[in-house]
């Protein structure tokens, strides 16, 4: 559902996703990692998955997108249950914030990672 520029939906796991779509074309995200991150989600807790790849707190947002990728916003969601999930680290998934295996492609595996700070 779209309302006021926000996209809200529940995925098949029941997790509520809220994202804000920018009006102008977004810059492309950078590949933060070539594999997903196993994360223990806590029911009722809010999370902000880094969609730009610039965060130093992967897979979560640390606000770096405001300067490094102003057209990309984090994907905010609320966990419906305590659960361990695989959150995408390559930022190329088609099922954000979850890994869909896209990181196994040659394009991701041969990509150069940004330098560590
Ligand atoms: S880490 Fe991005 S699709 Fe798996």
Automatic annotation (TrEMBL):
It comes from the Eukaryota. It holds the Pfam family zf-CDGSH. Residues 34-71, 72-109 form the Iron-binding zinc finger CDGSH type domain. InterPro entries: CISD (IPR052950), FeS-contain_CDGSH-typ (IPR018967), MitoNEET_CISD (IPR042216). Keywords: 2Fe-2S, Iron, Iron-sulfur, Metal-binding. GO terms for molecular function: 2 iron, 2 sulfur cluster binding; metal ion binding. This is CDGSH iron-sulfur domain-containing protein 3, mitochondrial. It comes from Patagioenas fasciata monilis. The lineage of its organism: Eukaryota, Metazoa, Chordata, Craniata, Vertebrata.
């Amino acid at each position: 559902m779209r309302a006021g520029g926000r996209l809200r939906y529940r995925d098949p796991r029941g997790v509520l996703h809220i994202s804000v779509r920018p009006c102008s074309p977004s810059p492309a995200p950078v590949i933060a990692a070539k594999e997903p991150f196993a994360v223990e989600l806590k029911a009722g807790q809010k999370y902000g998955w880094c969609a730009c790849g610039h965060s130093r707190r992967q897979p979560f947002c640390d606000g770096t997108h405001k300067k490094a990728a102003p057209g990309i916003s984090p994907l905010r969601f609320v966990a419906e249950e305590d659960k361990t999930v695989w959150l995408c680290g390559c930022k190329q998934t088609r099922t954000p914030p979850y890994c869909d295996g896209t990181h196994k492609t040659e394009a991701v595996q041969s990509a150069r990672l940004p330098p560590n700070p």
